[in-house]
Amino acid sequence: MMGPQTSGTARNRDVELYFDAHGDNSNPPVLFVNGLGSQSINFLPAWVQSFNRAGFYVIRMDNRDVGRSSKTPGEPPSIERVFEQLTREHSLGELSAPYNLSDMAMDCLAVLDALEIEQAHVWGMSMGGMIVQTLAINHPGRLRSMTTVMSTTGEIGVGQATPEAVAGLGTTGDDRRSVVANAVAARELQGGALFDKDWALSLEEAAYDRCHHPQGQVWQLLAILASGSRADQLPTVEVPTMVIHGRMDQLIQLDGGEATAALIPDAELVVYDQMGHDTPEPLWGDYVADLQRLADRTR
Question: 255 lies in a domain?
Fold first, then answer.
């Protein structure tokens, strides 16, 4: 069981955002920001507790278009069409996006505002890393520190996925069983040496039952593509930064993390040899220690 919990809904204009918070709210807050299509429950109770025990007040949220947060009306283009367009033109082309990463960064601030938190550590993985980078660029005063995990700079040709990893993204299914099975298979393709199939299965079953909304993944992907590269802005970041990446990552390969760390002044790069595009439980203690070390730089 998790400790004391606050849950609620924040609002950024017409978008409602689900959040929950755990632990002692007098402790330093850390906002965890998820990747493409992932819900707040991706950060499991045991994950939350590990950061609580280390003295952090933990905040989870559903990005727009997933979980209990607002959904974009209408139907997006197919994810296959999005990748086809990107591969052919290396640009968004004709595809329009109803929002971008700057809007999603403002969603994060809305959650902090709802909790009356002026500054927080932010920890974002994959797309979440892109969102927290955008926060650090546009709203540095709201951040105590930034940890960007298995993410990249937005530059074309940097942190590119392998064809096998991309193929897993476009697979859904017709019913609960096939959706869950395909999602687990995609996680296995993208995971590293520490991948736990039973853990992935239980998480994907819970995610399906809480909110199955595959359109959200496509809208979020369009937001990434519409936002372009952050390479010109990242050298201006003054927020204490850590970049974490897995050497076995096939969805955003290691050079994405290396490029991010190289662009941000004084960023610390941490590479885990057995980590893929996942956050395996055997490394949770290391992630906690990483954040503690980064937080010490802000005191």
Answer: yes
The predicted structure's pLDDT at residue 164: 82
The 3 state secondary structure assigned to the chain is: CCCCEEEEEEEECCEEEEEEEECCCCCCEEEEECCCCCCHHHCCHHHHHHHHHCCCEEEEECCCCCCCCCCCCCCCCCHHHHHHHHHHHCCCCCCCCCCCHHHHHHHHHHHHHHCCCCCEEEEEECHHHHHHHHHHHHCHHHEEEEEEECCCCCCCCCCCCCHHHHHHHCCCCCCHHHHHHHHHHHHHHHCCCCCCHHHHHHHHHHHHHHCCCHHHHHHHHHHHHHHCCCCCCHHHCCCCEEEEEECCCCCCCHHHHHHHHHHCCCCEEEEECCCCCCCCHHHHHHHHHHHHHHHHCCC
Average pLDDT over residues 193-221: 95
pLDDT of residue 154: 94
pLDDT at 93: 47
User: Across residues 259-268, what is the average pLDDT?
Assistant: 99
Residue 158 inside a domain? The answer is yes
Task: Provide the pLDDT for residue 111.
Answer: 99
Could you tell me the CATH number of the domain that includes residue 124? 3.40.50.1820
